[in-house]
């Protein structure tokens, strides 16, 4: 059902949090009751608002009565206005300026690219610590204005905004710790390095679903660009060579890496991918969301040595020599096939004849009899089979159960099967 258009923030707030839709319940964390005052709205004694307001997909286009917003939202700390029809930053400013304790604001999927964000409007966002502008098509000029007016901004979400380039801000944002900029089209490392310049305190950088093809930067420069980076997400990027993975070691504080769905790893098995990545990234403690245990790291590094030991010298990575120094040159692991044997060679004895045959162990006694029928010239109903384990001390065992599988007898190469006619 289509949402009604042209509704104000205050109108939607009154409808959603009326006693009929949001009954007031006493107790901690259940909401805040705003009592009526002589100058207040007649609705004021009826609305019971929580500190987290979710008003997404409600057709909001404007703020409504600012005095009403101030009266009801003084305690609100989180506000979700995603998927509405807000296209004027002035209207957003009217809402936010009357929510003095707001720390989280989600404006995703509002057509805000249709207006310019002026600095005086952006000033009303000053207390916000987490801002979500996904699919808002916010320009970099808008982002720069926000960064200048939000001194405490810690987390910024800029996904699905069709960015192909990054425009550097005239000032650095020292407060930002997390940047979520997935599902754009940032292919060139020269654009990513601008993010390091703008956000020198960045702790977490989420770049998934950007077709970044390579990391073109020296090790020293990478360390200066992202001196505090602890976590990076490069899922479904376009990285295609191991040298790019090695460069991640240049980030001095990096502990967590996510690298699923990149072209480089497509030709490897799941086990090879994880072990080769762990061995190449000695400082990380978490890979693709999973903690790396001490035992797993040692196993991976030993696997790495054995993986590359037969490569030509010019193709062996430098990390191989580091690990050989740590563990020494290792012997190749013996290849042990643990799969159950599917067939064996046995001696079939009938009267004075002995014939060596290969028989399948997944067949039944009845099926074996059919197989032997042409060899011993007996009908299956007139055939008795006896199995002799070459190491068993008790003599032959009659194979009397037609439906029993041969593998259940433990038959091995060199064992004997005796065929005798059934006595009339």
Automatic annotation (TrEMBL):
Q: What is its main location?
A: cytoplasm
Listed A to Z, the keywords are: Coiled coil, Cytoplasm, Cytoskeleton, Leucine-rich repeat, Phosphoprotein, Repeat
Q: Which residues form the Ubiquitin-like domain?
A: 348-420
Gene Ontology CC: cytoplasm; cytoskeleton
Domain of life of the organism encoding this protein: Eukaryota
Q: Where in the cell is it found?
A: Cytoplasm, Cytoskeleton
Query: Where is the signal peptide, in residue numbers?
Result: none
What PANTHER family does the record tag this protein with? DYNEIN AXONEMAL LIGHT CHAIN 1, NISCHARIN RELATED
Described by its record, this protein's role is as follows: Acts as a regulator of tubulin stability.
Q: What is this protein called?
A: Tubulin-specific chaperone cofactor E-like protein
Taxonomic classification: Eukaryota, Metazoa, Chordata, Craniata, Vertebrata
